[in-house]
Design goal:
The protein has helices spanning 23-34, 66-74, 88-96, 109-116, 118-126, 142-152, 179-185, 259-266, 284-291, 307-319, 323-350, 352-361, and strands at residues 15-19, 38-43, 57-60, 78-81, 104-106, 136-139, 156-160, 170-173, 210-214, 225-228, 234-237, 249-254, 271-276, 300-301. It has 362 residues and is an alpha/beta fold. The chain folds into four domains: 16-116, Rossmann fold, CATH 3.40.50; 132-214, 2-Layer Sandwich (Dna Ligase, domain 1); 242-320, 3-Layer(aba) Sandwich (Rossmann fold), CATH 3.40.50.1970; 323-360. The protein has a five-stranded parallel sheet, sandwiched between helices. α3 (88-96) runs antiparallel to α4 and α10 packs across α11 (323-350). The longest helix has 28 residues, at 323-350. The protein is globular and about 80 Å long. It starts with 14 loop residues before the first strand and ends with a helix.
Length: 362
């Protein structure tokens, strides 16, 4: 990807520092490039991170260490995040320093800190009028978890306050017998494990790592993605995508982050999902998160990492109402056919072994 040195007005484009270089950072960088912005990514994998692999300038470092964030800030006009698990306290310090080079941190560090703690999120929404929240309690010990079971009944949810996402950090407690396994699954350290005598040291509320949530028989899950601009304008995406003239949406998904499915549930527009290759299951988890959407939420799915086919499929969908796109697609297919015929002739002339050897050289 080329790096812009000036924008349409001739001035140097703003530099956006992004803490985290995962799949969201990769998509963010592509969008920023179209807007004439420069992006600098901070990620432990540096240039090998998903965002860094696009050719963006990426710095190898931790988005939790103050010194690494400070070095990033020195080179940027504004800071943002693509992952919530960052050093929100230090970002707040940068926001408060008038002499700092950074003009702003978005979202606000206080918002990031709130997002990091799911229990504090519950407390926040409890105070918001019109938002219903399932009953919840802090869990300061194994005995406290037993008492929650007596009050809430079984099953109930035991959840980690921090570092929980995409279904991780949650455990279903079906009965009191499940408590020890649930604690261990969520990383809460038991002081001893001797038969029924297992228990946790009683913790202060601010030290407790878990909280309980009463079981709710959900009928459906609804989600709306809302973005707010620096000037205060608010957009709901992709709820109003059709109203803004969009005809088809291409969305990528890494791991179990079923972004294409979420979008398809919110918009009447056709959605094409691109599974992103991951380091753990080579993208098979990404593929399943898209293709296994429930009935009523269709997502057209292409091969892992094959964004080219996603683009071509989008052209075919748009071509249903635009004959010029149908003609362009026919030309593309004809070109492909000629390329294949040419390869067949070359292989027939040289033999398949020599042809394959030449392919390996290139």
């Amino acid at each position: 990807m080329p790096v812009l040195t000036t924008n349409a007005s001739g001035a140097a484009p703003p530099v956006v520092g992004v803490l985290g270089g995962g799949q969201l950072g990769r998509m963010m960088a592509n969008a920023a490039h179209r807007l004439g912005l420069q992006v600098l990514v901070l990620d432990p994998l540096g240039a090998d991170s998903p965002a860094g692999q696009t050719g963006l300038k990426a710095v190898a470092g931790s988005f939790t260490k103050e010194e690494d964030i400070a070095k990033l800030a020195e080179q940027c006009d504004v800071l943002t995040v693509e992952i919530e698990h960052v050093n929100a306290a230090f970002l707040q310090q940068l926001q408060d320093k008038k002499e700092a080079n950074v003009q702003g941190v978005h979202p606000a560090p206080a918002t990031i800190a709130l997002i990091q703690d799911k229990y504090q999120q519950k407390q926040f929404f409890t105070q918001v009028q019109g938002v219903d929240v399932a009953p919840y309690e802090i869990v300061t010990s194994l005995q406290a978890a037993r008492q929650v079971g007596e009050r809430f009944g079984y099953p109930y949810m035991l959840k980690s306050r921090r570092f929980a996402y995409d279904g991780k950090g949650n455990a279903v407690v079906k009965s009191e017998k499940d408590l020890v396994d649930a604690f261990e699954k969520l990383g809460a350290k038991l002081l001893a494990k001797e038969g029924a005598g297992v228990d946790l040291k009683e913790l202060a509320e601010e030290e407790a790592k878990l909280y309980a949530e009463k079981w709710v028989p959900f009928v459906k899950e609804l989600a709306v993605m809302v973005v707010k601009g620096a000037e205060g304008d608010v957009r709901a995406y992709p709820v109003n995508a059709a109203g803004r003239g969009l005809k088809v949406i291409i969305a990528g998904a890494g791991g179990a982050a079923h972004l294409p499915g979420m979008i398809a549930a919110l918009t009447p527009l056709p959605v094409v999902g691109v599974p992103v290759k991951t380091s753990t299951l080579n993208g098979e988890d990404s593929l399943l998160s898209i293709v296994q959407m429930p009935r009523g939420v269709p997502v057209a799915t292409v091969a892992i990492g094959n964004s080219t086919n996603a683009g071509l499929l989008a052209v075919r969908i748009l071509g249903a109402g635009d004959s010029s796109l149908i003609d362009a697609m026919a030309t593309f297919l004809d070109t492909q056919k000629r390329e294949v015929d040419d390869k067949i002739e070359k292989m027939a002339a040289s033999g398949w072994k020599e042809y394959l050897q030449n392919m390996k050289k290139h």
